[in-house]
Every structure is written in C-alpha cells, then in structure tokens.
Amino acid sequence: MTTGPTGALLVVGDVVTDIVARHRGPLAPGTDTAAVIRTVPGGAGANVACWAAHWGCADVRLLGRVGADAAAWHERELVASGVQPRLVVDPEAATGTVICLVDTGASAERTFLTDSGAALRLGPEDWSDSLLDGVVRLHLSGYLLFSGPSRAFVAAAVESARARGVPVSLDPASAGFLVELGVDRFLTLVEGVDMLLPSRDEACLLTGLPDPADAAAKLSRHVPLVVTKQGAEGALLAHSGTVHAHVPAEPATPRDTTGAGDAFTGAFLATLLTGADPEKAAREGCRAGARAVERVGGRPPGRG
C-alpha cells in the first residue's frame, strides 16, 4: 500500500450497476443456463476511484451522473470505499446498468451488455472550475467520449485543468466503442491529456499496429506518457516514441477479470501521487490487477 498524497485525485466517469452472471461453458440458446448472479456497484470511473482509495490515496473524489433509482445506494457504497462522491442525479434517466456474462470455464470469456443510462448524460453544465480546488490530478474515463454531452464535458474539464496546471490522464475504456467513435476522432479529443492508459487491444486498435510495444511507442508520440495494460503480460510504459519499461504481471488465479484494468489504473494513480516514478506505479498497478481478478466484480474489498 502507499501513503496518501498531498492533494486530491478527481476521477470523472461512469457509475453503474453491474449484474454479474457467472456461468460455465457456452450459453444455451432458447433455454436455461445455470449461473451464479450478483448485483454489485460498478462503472469504470467509480471502480478506478475505489481502487485508488484502497491503495492509499487519502483524498479521492468522484464525479458521475446517476439516476434517482440507485443514487443513494451508489453513494453509500462509494463512501464505504473511502471515496468522496459528487454524484449528479439525473431527473430523467435511470442509473446505467451493465450485465456482465462471465464464463467460468476454460475460455474465461467476458461479455458485456451495456445500458449507459444516466452515465453518459454528464454535460458541460455539470462542470465547475471549483471541482479542481485542491486537486493534483484529474482522471477521466474514456466512456465520456462516447456521447455528445459528455464529450463537451471532457473539453471543458481538460481546458480548465490545463489552465490550472493540473495533469490529466484518460483510460480509453472500450475497444468496441472506439471502433464506433473512430481512431482519428479519439486522438483529436484527447489532445491536452498528458497520460493514456489503454489496454493492449485498445492500443493496437488506436494505432493499427499488431504488436503492443509498437503500438505503445506510436501512441506516445501523441500523448506524453502511455501505460499499456496487458493483463497476464504486465504493463508497458512508453514516452517520446519509445518503450522504456516492461513491468511483469503479478501471479494470480483469476475468478473474474471484470475491473482488473480499473484496479491497475487506480493503484497506478494512487502510487504516482506519492511522488513515485511511473515504473514503480505500474508495479503497484499490476499488484492491484492481480488482486482484482481473484474477486467477483470490479471493486476492491470493503474496509473494516
């Protein structure tokens, strides 16, 4: 674990309800497939914030948009994880919901059915420069780039952060959504971001290169620091067009890989805010990722 930083981490992103169905082997079309089903709090942005707090960041704040249906529950869960929620309650849309189908057999496949609901209705009217008071890093979930209102929100937040000298990191979030958005559009939208934390698939998609090291190197010509998360193969760190470090993964026995990348990001940011260098932060990220895959759901264990 790390010691707390001298300033706050502000995470902006999705807060959703995860319905996790763990089944073994292929789904049986037209009939029943036995599964273990749990409802847990999730969302990439919320998960990152919770893991950052779990990893020792003393002041983690989360801005997200939820529906009135589940706002109180999500707020309680975030507070219990050591996060200060700044939740905007949407007057019309319900809280986003994701059904996570997790194959517990040899394939360990994950499939997501996503209803973003209120999560992607965060707009520029939800941003205020005062949200950066006391903040030393702003982290954005890439899901915010996948709707018009939240893209406008990102532009306002990044402009405000740059004016204050607050560094901004972003996780691309979803290879599937990136295909719809378009690579060129994504790279334009992330101008002003100082750190990108893609998965291996996202890095390759964003560059058109099959090798993740080549992809990380190319991306680091667009964004100053690129940290590519590779699951069981650890992480790559690149800047100025060159890969400078390959951090190995921690051994783990996976039960559910949902949220492993969020765990990496949260621990990475928490460690970085202590003044550690990115390579040490990536080692902590790999430790957190290993812990995450041994749990069901995307959040760290509760406190106490």
Mind explaining what this structure looks like?
It comes from Streptomyces hokutonensis. Its EC number is 2.7.1.-. Residues 9-299 form the Carbohydrate kinase PfkB domain. Keywords: Kinase, Transferase. This is Carbohydrate kinase family protein. The relative contact order is 0.16. This protein is globular. By secondary structure, it is an alpha/beta fold. A 9-stranded mixed sheet has the order 5-4-1-8-9-10-11-12-13, with helices on both faces. Strands 3-2-6-7 form a 4-stranded mixed sheet. Helix 6 crosses helix 7. The protein has helices spanning 44-54, 71-80, 148-164, 175-181, 183-189, 200-207, 212-219, 260-272, 278-293, and strands spanning 8-12, 16-23, 35-42, 60-67, 83-90, 96-103, 110-115, 135-141, 168-171, 195-196, 225-229, 235-239, 242-247. The protein is built from 9 helices and 13 strands. Residues 1-5 have low confidence and may be disordered. The protein has a domain at 9-14 and 46-69 and 120-293: UDP-N-acetylmuramoyl-L-alanine:D-glutamate ligase, CATH 3.40.1190.20.
